[in-house]
Amino acid sequence: MKRDLTIALDAMGGDNAPGIVIRGAELARVRYPDAKFLLFGDQMQLNPLLKSKPELASVSSVRHTADFVSGDEKPTVALRKGRKSSMQLAVNAIRDGEAQCIVSAGNTGALMAISKVTLRMLPGINRPAICALCPTEIGDSAMLDLGANIECDPDNLLQFGVLGAAYVRTVLGIEKPTVGLLNVGEEEVKGGDVVKKAAILLREPNLPFDFKGFVEGDDIGKGTVNVFVVDGFTGNLMLKSIEGTVKLYTEYLRWAFGSTLFSKVAGFLAKGAFKRLKARIDPRSYNGATFLGLNGIVVKSHGSADGFGFANAVGVGADMVKNGLNKIITKEIASYTEQRSKMSEAAKTDVL
Amino acid sequence: MKRDLTIALDAMGGDNAPGIVIRGAELARVRYPDAKFLLFGDQMQLNPLLKSKPELASVSSVRHTADFVSGDEKPTVALRKGRKSSMQLAVNAIRDGEAQCIVSAGNTGALMAISKVTLRMLPGINRPAICALCPTEIGDSAMLDLGANIECDPDNLLQFGVLGAAYVRTVLGIEKPTVGLLNVGEEEVKGGDVVKKAAILLREPNLPFDFKGFVEGDDIGKGTVNVFVVDGFTGNLMLKSIEGTVKLYTEYLRWAFGSTLFSKVAGFLAKGAFKRLKARIDPRSYNGATFLGLNGIVVKSHGSADGFGFANAVGVGADMVKNGLNKIITKEIASYTEQRSKMSEAAKTDVL
User: Which of B136, B234, B255 sits opposite A234 (nearest CB)?
Assistant: First the structure.
């Protein structure tokens, strides 16, 4: 069955909107020739940009609004005052069935608040999580939560496991994903109460993944598991320190090759190697974090993304639509919930 | 005034003990010609190793014990059963004034437990923190806690600020260090209750550092502040994901330069650049985490350190002894405590 693929874009979100949104959509159109775009934003700015891209224009509709959510707006303010913001209208398009996913490079907190209120959770999920892929020695792994939930309880962490596993199954095609719970050590005695209790839940039988127990911070680079589960406070700080380390290393590399004339020449000869390296660590290739657990597909692009990066974020959304991610998650959560209530019924019978 | 510098070494701690301990001590002896060493461990193994290093042997005494703490021993077991372990005896040497610092590459949890019970806290400090230096774009910064305290309250985080500031002042010679509190965003509304309350405490006047508010994960690479304060759960996961990222990047670099014959040749010509790079990112140069807040100087080396790495850990301890770190911390905590009680007295008077 061919699925509709209409993508709602918050054309006014991000540091370089709407320019990068249009450039990103044009690049995504080439990769997804059956995609249509709904662009929410200021038509005075959008129409001239579309004029120079007739092929994109032919598969796009502009929905005019002058309002937008600024980068430093508090989520609560964005929710209350921004009823006609490009972000809110773009999310409405998912709720109303006009589009199958929405991509925004705008304010993360506002996008999460608007999405939660407008789309609600999938049945059986208490809180959405921000999930992204990260490169490892042996392929990509998913990591969540990256900042939606500062504090998490064991049930949240269990649900993140289910969400992350469904995500890598659909997006990376891994049949039975492995899941690890990030902690300060691998031994069962390590960590606080929340991770210990979460580990017990994650070990329950019949979950749609293979739980590998506790994993540590350096397991991410090694790709020890397909899904790394962590609370949003720690996950956000880890993700950003990984990004910072990549920048620092690149800086050092530039310095090492720029120190002497000889190494400059060597660096010039190594242009091919550097190009390969760049392609592999380019953060733009990893742009596009997903809000998992919502009743609708929401993708957040980095605020500073360029067109290439934004196109990758659009691709993340398009792939999830094509693979029917949310149907899979709903099915898995339902089957797990049923399993659990059967188990607790059985436990009651045993007692009697 | 010339200070005594006797260093107690847990000669049996670490993956490659006692060989790397002896090699590390020999390297450290060259850098600290006035240092003396107390080696705790199995004389049957230590004496032959020392025989081949007569200069080290001339400034070392071996204190024989056959017991040692294994890498996977629970801290409580190490404490209870390990009264004669090389680790416990080496820590005792600090308590008894026989040595000014102790270095171990053994089990971190056991070393922390033994150190806390044997040495106790400095006055005014509730909990010790693990602190290490990390490289940044503009020099080194300190980060703590790296795993001693899974859960922290606002007072702990404030004390980590005081401890970290005293550390960089003595070890890096920074007169008025800047301190940042790691959080998921820079705005005051971000984060949970603990970091918000800690930020209020850290903003109090007359603290011996300049508090810069919240900082994010990528600020570490940038070196935005001299001291990064964080709870031990998050700090440990961040540190290890930074280490993992450095390894992953190095792996990618090797791959990029090994992909074609041409890039192999370029890589050969770039040997000098790679050497400079390696010197800058070598984790061995950053070996040696300090347990701050204890009434005694305790340094933990990576368990897998080689002689060069272990010598650096010895250097961390030696520098702290030479600079009288714990006296500075005690003075600063006392002055801050006095300040605070005056403030609360004044507040009472105001109310009356």
Answer: B234
Per-residue confidence in pLDDT tens, chain B, 352 aa: 556 899 999 999 999 999 999 999 999 999 999 999 999 999 999 999 999 999 999 999 999 999 999 888 888 888 888 889 999 999 999 999 999 999 999 999 999 999 999 999 988 899 999 999 999 999 999 999 999 999 999 999 999 999 999 999 888 889 899 999 999 988 877 889 999 999 999 998 888 899 999 999 999 999 999 999 999 999 999 999 999 999 999 888 888 888 788 788 888 888 888 888 888 778 788 889 999 999 999 999 999 999 999 999 999 999 999 888 888 888 887 777 777 777 667 666 655 4
Closest to B272 (Cβ–Cβ): which among A217, A260, A280?
A260
Residues 6 or more apart whose Cβ sits within 8 Å of residue B71 = B15, B106, B107, B303
At position A215, the amino acid (one-letter code) is: V
Cα–Cα distance for residue pair A77/A74, rounded to 1 Å: 5
Q: Do A221 and B244 touch (CB under 8 A)?
A: yes
A232: chain B residues, CB-CB within 8 Å: 184
Partners of residue A252 in chain B, C-beta under 8 Å? 277, 280-281
Domains located in chain B, CATH noted? 1-125+293-352 (3.40.718.10), 126-290 (3.40.718.10)
Distance (Å) of CA A49 to CA A19, B13, B233:
7, 66, 48
Surface of B (323-352) touching A: CB under 8 A: none
Model confidence, pTM:
0.91
Contact (CB<8Å) A217/B241: yes
Contacts of B192 in chain A (CB under 8 A): 150-151, 233
d(CA B321, CA B171): 10
- Helix B232-258 × helix A232-258 angle, to 10°: 40
